[in-house]
């Protein structure tokens, strides 16, 4: 056999293997990219009913074999049969395969052998073989696997995802599904965010009210009656079973109990362990709340008792104790806490938090565990026992690693998977800053500021899917996949071998595998987006629209139709912007080189009515503002629509470049949302508006952007509409009016003046109309 290095190329890492045939790229669609490959001659065919041989009495090998059979059944549609003894597919223990997660996979004309010293190595070898057995979209057919030897091991030990089950509870069976698909791309750490202001999800037998009270919340009101309670929790028996299931798949579950902030659910359940011993409701607002855990001796003892039960359930080395966003107002205003700070010889609340972290870190160390927390635990001085998960950029990781502490990189916003994946209007709930597949793939987990000799302290990286706006299991999956594959390759594969173009080829079959396994996978990276050249008014005046088509990820051939039919692999290929008379609807999608759709087709309507209409996703921020979030109508809505783009600090959105020489009338659809965002110390950034009526108004102005930029220009008030009583009015309603005679394109601002104590209003859609309006 000929030894070849896996090279990085524009098209496929595999395509540049010396002396490899072109077809080899499709024969080995492996994600993440393996460390090295040796090519052989010939191949081996795996048919339905093939046996998987395992060493007699080897429970780890038996588990890996079952996992392989399960994935191949779902992803290829053929059955493999694990059994003790020898077989054409053989799992082998081999101490010469160095590394806790390393494996060697050999394919020749006689069969397939997976060798590893560890259980995890056998699992990862099995997952690589599962990918080799589903290299294309064929289903239920035998597979010819190219002869090769793969020697593989990960670059980083921590390759993870965070699942926030505190803000929105996820049924335990949905956590199982995510673990299965993490294993498929060799992700090995699931960080479970189990507690927050909005819910406590871990059963503590010594303190039953943590789940009896703390696991349930009443949603906030947007006027009128509130919806049903939201909540749920996991029993210790459920979690022990989950931990065992994950371990069989090479996945470690790291639990998080968030302290001292994000503790309102704790305070609701046991007010005696909060700072002022008051009794708040379990939180229903997103953001930063004031409630802190009380670090008095009885509070420290309380948390140690919780830790005792936590480590009985979770055998992970690391226990995450939060430490983030703990504004210290309650500690600063409590005479008892201030007396404790003084008695300990400390000066600040940050130092008290550091002291508290050290108490728990020492306690965990005594039980053979290690504490990890968010990078705020650095602020009062980092205890020797602590490791850091850096989320506020990379600064915390650089500082901690250079001090000799282990770190995990999870910087916001890049690795925050609750950020949207594209700027398409049909993206689901989340934060509006787009974190694309490519941006995540190209992230380097070792920051430049870490000294070379300290780089060993970088354990790895993880993507976080916070669930303020991720409500259903499908929305969580949509946020994870396919970006989980980018995180997997970024943390598994060697830095100098990664190549995004190669990854795009190899991730396509993995997306197909995930979908065959029943997972929701976002397609925004591969979907066609449309850009109208010039303004909408220009197109209407010229009676023609010029539209450019593109995909976010540079992959596939865009094909389109103009006759209302869905595009196929035989439809015209897009090569240049299309110039059309208004009224034509473009439908387009990208196709790979085998003629397969890479994403569902998207449409662009060039009719005059469509060009005069803007939905919430097409609105922009008012001057000086910034759209932050895409949120549902109610905080716990399980439907994917409607959703609204909003600015937390300003109830104003803008219709850019409205053609006011053409439009004579308008209808604006309005939505009333619950105002449930805890802004903490950021309340000063909020723009309060003076209401002239009891419930406020919607004030529509033209030339608002020009007036903001040039004080000599006066905005033109188009209309002012009194908002109805939230207690009796529906949550969605509309206003209509007419425009004065104006010229050209002008920005329109839609400003709501409702009091900050009232619900939050936003625009759902604006429809402009031509001609006379009665």
Automatic annotation (TrEMBL):
Reactions catalysed: Hydrolysis of terminal non-reducing N-acetyl-D-hexosamine residues in N-acetyl-beta-D-hexosaminides
Location of the active site: 325 (proton donor)
EC numbers, comma separated: 3.2.1.52
A GO cellular component entry from the record: membrane
Stretch forming the signal peptide: 1-25
Alphabetized GO MF terms: beta-N-acetylhexosaminidase activity
Domain Glycoside hydrolase family 20 catalytic: residue ranges: 156-494
Matches recorded under Pfam families: CHB_HEX_C_1, Glyco_hydro_20, Glyco_hydro_20b
Domain of life: Bacteria
This protein's UniProt keywords: Glycosidase, Hydrolase, Signal
Domain GH29D-like beta-sandwich, residue spans: 544-599
Domain Beta-hexosaminidase bacterial type N-terminal as annotated: residue spans: 29-153
Gene Ontology terms describing biological process: carbohydrate metabolic process; glycosaminoglycan metabolic process
Stated family: Belongs to the glycosyl hydrolase 20 family.
Protein name from the UniProt record: beta-N-acetylhexosaminidase
Species whose genome carries this gene: Sphingomonas kyeonggiensis
Lineage of source species: Bacteria, Pseudomonadati, Pseudomonadota, Alphaproteobacteria, Sphingomonadales
